Amino acid sequence: MKTLGIIPARGGSKGVTKKNIRLVDGEPLIYYAIKAAQESLLLTNCVVTTDDDAIIEVVKKYNCNFQKRDISNAQDNTPIEPVITEVLEKLNKDYELIILLQPTAPIRTGKDIDNVIEMFKNDSTTESVVSVIELNDIHPARMYTIDDFLKMLPLNKMDERKIRQDLTPVYLRNGCIYAVTTSAFYKENKLITNNKKAYVMPESMWANIDTERDLLITEVLVKEWRKGKL
Description:
The chain is 29% helix and 24% strand. By secondary structure, the protein is α/β, with parallel strands linked by helices. The radius of gyration is 19 Å and the shape is globular.
């Protein structure tokens, strides 16, 4: 199965300045996505797509392919789908499967990527796969909206008073891996198609960087993960 890994790494970031090349445990954040892709035994090719020359210089150090992204696909509000389409059009090669590896979710391995690819190989009806983690006490039963008078309105009133053990498990996208067949991607123009499956990862592999606080937490988690303690 010809599989393309895509690592999207835009230069601009409002929450964390120069996020994709900030150091995490001594390595640029994007290194962890590249390393996982290079560890994979089943990826056919991997490409970093970026608009930023500083990111390109970092990527070169790790011997990873890259594309200079069109500025129109590097805006704050640019969805991921046109970014993927641009990569595919520039490569002008036939791939059966696309794997998206966000640098901002660095705790993953090549084995995780290969496990996802195997899901497609083992079931030809699979259109897309999303990595998730199971939430425990962070659950819709513990969540509320608040009205103008500070009144708390439960999202799930029926389960509000249940203990954790009695709650139906819920899962959160952890941002590590998104996969979609090329045919399904072009059919729906979506990375996450209507027909999707979960690749469940341990909660310990949940780190997603959107803020400086996230970066601090991820630094600790990555250090422990690299020591084999997560």
